[in-house]
Amino acid sequence: MGYMLLAQVPCKDEPAKKEMIEKYIEEAVSLQKNSPGCEKFAIFTNRNDPSDLTVYSFEQFTDKAAADAHMQSDVVKQMLNWLATRQPVAGDIKVSKLEVGEGFSVPTRAEADTHEDPFVAMGVLAYKDGTVPQSMPYWKDVVAISAEEEGTLSYGIYTNTEDKNQVVAWEVYTSKEYLYDVHAKSDAVQANVKNTGHLREGLKHTFLKKVGGFFKK
User: Fold this and answer.
1) In whole angstroms, how large is the CA radius of gyration of the chain?
2) Same domain, 89 and 113
3) CA 104 to CA 139: how far, in whole Å?
4) Which part of the chain is the ABM domain (predicted)?
5) Among candidates 199, 97, 181, which has minimal Cα distance to 139?
6) Is the distance from CB of 60 to CB of 3 less than 8 angstroms?
7) Is the pLDDT of residue 7 over 90?
8) How confident is the model at residue 65, as a pLDDT?
């Protein structure tokens, strides 16, 4: 079972945001070379709101043990020391700990890292208490059809280890148009909405722009 850390870092100003991105990129370079347990490590900003000072990171590991080893590594210790010294953050850093089971993710296409500007969508869904298991067969169908879509570069459905009623959809496309004109109109997506929409209490989409790191080793 894959293990993912999704971090949202609210920076206090534009210079701090720029430095935060640079530090994250340094970490990504180190992980790509030295951490076999790290499968993905990418850095993003808000695509639709340039005034948003949040820096997002998507970090996927083979398992929790690999993630724990990463958190004890020198590169993370250096990052934490820089955060304490530079103090670039305004507010609390939010880190979601997520898992993805077999059959709930699409192998990332190599094009995800070579594409000039992949369109990244992060959907956070809140479900009525105890209803996530009812939705998962429909999500599995969505993942299966996503694997056949040429314009879907990466797709995964993650459950939150600290919130049993939350699901995170992590999606990477060749373009915004492919998301809305092809993927969203697929029979599997429409069936998911039709049959499980009543179980949902909320859906928040954030559209992201990749600024560093890697989707695939």
Assistant:
1) 17
2) no
3) 7
4) 3-98, 119-208
5) 199
6) yes
7) yes
8) 94
In the predicted structure, residue 27 carries a pLDDT above the cut 80: yes
Q: Can you read off the two tokens belonging to residue 127?
A: 């479900």
DSSP class per residue in 91-142: SPPEEEEEEE-TTSEEPPPTHHHHSSS-EEEEEEEEESTT-HHHHHHHHHHH
Q: How far apart are CA 199 and CA 100, in angstroms?
A: 20
- Average pLDDT in the chain: 96
The answer to whether position 215 is within a domain reads no
Residue 62 pLDDT grade (very low, low, confident, very high; cuts 50, 70, 90): very high
Using CA atoms, how far apart are residues 43 and 46, in angstroms rounded to an integer? 11
Mapping DSSP to helix (H, G, I), strand (E, B) and coil, where does residue 190 land? Answer: helix
Please report whether residue 217 resides in a domain: no
93 and 117, same structural domain?
A: no
Range of the domain at 153: 105-207
User: Number of helices (H) and strands (E), helices first, in the chain?
Assistant: 7, 9
Crossing angle of the two packed helices 74-86 and 14-34, in degrees rounded to 10: 170
Per-residue pLDDT band for 1 (boundaries 50, 70, 90) equals: confident
Does the predicted TM-score (pTM) go above 0.90?
Answer: yes
Give me the number of domains the chain comprises.
Answer: 2
Tens-place pLDDT, residues 101-123: 999 999 999 999 999 999 999 99
